[in-house]
Fold this sequence. Notes:
52% helix, 8-stranded mixed beta sheet, 2 domains, alpha/beta, N-(1-d-carboxylethyl)-l-norvaline Dehydrogenase, domain 2, 8 strands
Amino acid sequence: MKIGLIGYGKMGKDIFTLLSGSLNAEFVIYVRHDAQADTDAVMKALARQHRRKLMTQEQLLRRQNAFRFTESLHELADCEIILETVTENPELKQEIFRETAGIVSENCLLLTNTSSLDIRGIFSEIPRKERCAGMHFFYPVRLSEFAEISLLPETSGQTRTAAQQILTDCGKKSVIFSGDYQVWLNQILSCMISHALVLCDLFQISVRELSAAWEPLFPMADPFVMLDSIGLGLLAENQMHFCLSRNHALLESGCRTMQKWLDSGCGTGTHCFLDFIAQREQPTGNPCQEAELYMTAFLLNETAAALSESGADSQQLLAAVSSTLGLAAPLPEYYHKYGTEAVSAALGRLYQKTGFASYQNRNSLFQLYYN
């Protein structure tokens, strides 16, 4: 199997590391410049792993001979799979696939790692769309349990199966989405962060106070830690690409708050936000005992809608939500903890305050999916 990777930024590097360490395949990685420098860096990394006895001599030689970097797209001509990992720029992705589709065979699978863009637009000019799909990895790639596959109406069963098999061979579980629910896992993660900002305003408390209140709910990383690790600039830029209209107002609200912080001097990159907010905020001392209830109320509500409308496997989707968001327990357990009345009251207060469609109560679905 020969796989072409287009793009070698932070995500591209992590995806290449995962795929090359898991698959018996040859890789051709397209970069715009510095192909030799990237080659040297991978060779050094492999040699370091060998010195540390993380791979045998035989494995080292196989990995060293299984990749090459190129600055010419034409060297991807005989690839069987293309996976694009460039920045979230729709015009750039369209251009890449338009050019690549004219180089590779008509049977070559074309996959995009977009985290927010509509794949119907990305592949709009591609002939034989049955070979096209989205394959979104979460960051950090090696630690995330799930990846999401997004399908076009034309995507064939063969393409779907091939994408699932790649993920399975890499030790990843997959969730399948289509239509406006494409990359929905990443959308609920983005919505969760915007919702956290709404709750700061609702409870009139600081980011750090709310973060502390969520330690039992998010034992590994709460929404603000996730925001810090993603980067304020990237999240503020990409939130409005998602297809589901019901979440646009919530995401717009989050974007406005993030842009305010950016305008006040917060860095755009990773691991800037928490340092920035620590210098800006003072503890309020206001109570936030209901922080867990108000967070899980939103997550229960949004997930119920997805379970009802997305067509994804219910059990797989519930497991993916808990894993991707880093919840301490499966989502249905929080429904049993609080019950319909408390969850509905929280949603009612949120909707009354904001008018956001994300908070419209879907409690008629709760017992169907959470009992």
